[in-house]
């Protein structure tokens, strides 16, 4: 079974090259490197585990470079420029050494007689299985320029979708981070000064103050134990999530979160619809397209529902009879897909689904701050109230001591 291998090699002029390719085994990787006049230094198989991530999108810089690459290649290919010549022009205009190296390797593979899709498949960290499958279908149908245009448009929309989701979660993450920093500073620097001040009067301290003081004393005296405990918890969580059952548990909990869960479901639905439409339009069979998408969606629970949907289509069953079988995949999207299949207009329906849920993600992300602001205000207010009680109640007791 093909797997991804990470390699490090040396060129004939002594420069190091790193990359990831798909091969049947390490021997095949070494043969490929030697054919490219590269001397293998190390070859190691990458883990089959999916990365722990909320959304599973590329980095913004990778997306932008990929969009530029697709747009430039489609324009020149449509203008009648030979593929190798077009790749040469694109390579000369790239400033990023890594992407330039990738294009150079793709050129060498194409020059050796391999299809463009096969050459792109050697770099799965940049060109996903969906991307490669669409290019392969475009090459086979003779409509590579149209396929590249569709891919470029899809990548632009997906980049916009990714930015909307990231902007939506940025504000609460910043608030939580600032709150954590403030608590750490108060517990380690501010509270110990109040302790020395109050203890000099021998007055009885109220319960909120005693709780804050004991917590502060523990952090100041046993900070190393807190770090070890946090590291142990982190290691345990990581080991738990590396197990299939643990990963599915986390992915399910993420989809069940208030507001954020709905945002993830809508974002994944929009992304799934956009990619499935491109693959279906490129001429790939529907079942095969869904199998490829199942492997590219990072949330294992949502991916499982896509796989279940593919099995239903494979058995020839109707989606309308199985509404209860899907917990997270939106019922509206299921019915629209069923209508598209019945009417023979699936491509149009998938476009409508992608547009609809992309707009929902955009609307939710723009109003997310207003939605969660009351919750954050309540949490911050409770924290401030606790600190105020811990600091000012002892002052009230000291005033009583002085009056007596």
Write the layout of secondary structure elements.
Blueprint: E1 3-10, E2 16-23, H1 26-35, E3 39-45, H2 60-78, H3 83-92, H4 97-111, H5 116-120, H6 129-141, H7 144-199, H8 207-221, H9 223-241, H10 244-256, H11 260-281, H12 286-296, H13 300-315, H14 331-343, H15 346-403
Antiparallel strand pairs: 1-2, 1-3
What does this molecule look like?
This protein is mainly alpha-helical. It has a domain at 1-48: Ubiquitin-like (UB roll) (Roll), CATH 3.10.20. Helices cover 73% and strands 6% of the residues. The chain is built from 15 helices and 3 strands. The protein has helices spanning 26-35, 60-78, 83-92, 97-111, 116-120, 129-141, 144-199, 207-221, 223-241, 244-256, 260-281, 286-296, 300-315, 331-343, 346-403, and strands at residues 3-10, 16-23, 39-45. A 3-stranded antiparallel β-sheet has the order 2-1-3, with helices on one face. Helix 8 (207-221) packs across helix 15 and helix 12 (286-296) packs antiparallel against helix 13. The radius of gyration is 28 Å and the shape is globular. The model is unreliable at 48-60 (pLDDT under 50).
In brief:
The protein is mainly alpha-helical and 404 residues long. The chain is 73% helix and 6% strand. It has a 3-stranded antiparallel sheet with strand order 2-1-3, with helices on one face.
